[in-house]
Amino acid sequence: MEFQGAANKFRRDTPYVSLNHQGIVWMNRFAFEQFGSPKAVALLYDRANGAVGLRAIDPEAPNAFPVRGKTNSSEKTVCALPFFRHHGLRPEGTVTFNRLETEDDVLVLDLNNVTAVDRRVRRK
Q1: Of 29, 39, 80, 115, whose CB has the highest number of CB atoms within 10 Å?
Q2: Which three-class secondary structure state does DSSP give residue 29?
Q3: What is the DSSP track for 81-107?
Q4: Pick from 113, 116, 119: which is nearest to 50 by CA?
Q5: What is the percent of the chain with per-residue pLDDT over 90, rounded to a whole number?
Q6: CA-based nearest residue to 30, from 11, 49, 48
Q7: DSSP secondary structure letters along 15-26
Q8: 42 with 67: CB under 8 angstroms?
Q9: What is the structure's pLDDT at 74?
Q10: Is the per-residue pLDDT at 121 higher than 80?
Q11: Beta carbons of 114 and 97 less than 8 angstroms apart
Q12: Residues 77 and 25: beta-carbon distance below 8 Å
């Protein structure tokens, strides 16, 4: 069976977002800046189109997911496991999103257009 993933290509000069089996959304500086460098995001799910959205939101809002990052690093993460569990969206391994779009200040992640980076078996 032919492997359907691709070589790891860290893209420093273009927006890059990945999702791992722990429900952590990882983004580089370019993706983070693409939708305004927020301190927190609201997570949206469009079941019909198979897409997840990240929208900047007040960090004090009850549905806010904080955007975290190391002080020395431009990479940012959103720990979104409760959201992905609620919608039954948990990949077996890490996937990267092949196309990123911003629509109405929402960073759209197309779940139907991803590349497998690894195939770790997650613990149950």
Answers
A1: 80
A2: helix
A3: HHHHHHTT---SS-EEES-EEEETTEE
A4: 113
A5: 56
A6: 11
A7: --EEE-TTSEEE
A8: no
A9: 83
A10: no
A11: yes
A12: yes
What mean pLDDT do residues 36-64 have? 96
Helices (H), 2-123: 29-34, 81-86
Residue 100 has pLDDT above 80, yes or no: yes
Residue 81 structure tokens? 């496991």
pLDDT of residue 73: 77
Amino acid at 121: V
Q: Is the pLDDT of residue 4 over 90?
A: no
Structure tokens belonging to residue 72:
């020395």
Q: 110 - beta bridge partners?
A: 51
Tokens matching residue 93: 């391994």
Q: Residue 72 is which amino acid?
A: N
pLDDT in tens, 29-38: 899 988 889 9
Query: How remote is the C-alpha of 20 from its chain's centroid?
Result: 8
Percent of the chain with pLDDT strictly greater than 70: 88
Per the listing, tokens 């200040």 go with: 105
Q: Is the dihedral of CA 89, 26, 24, 117 positive or negative?
A: positive
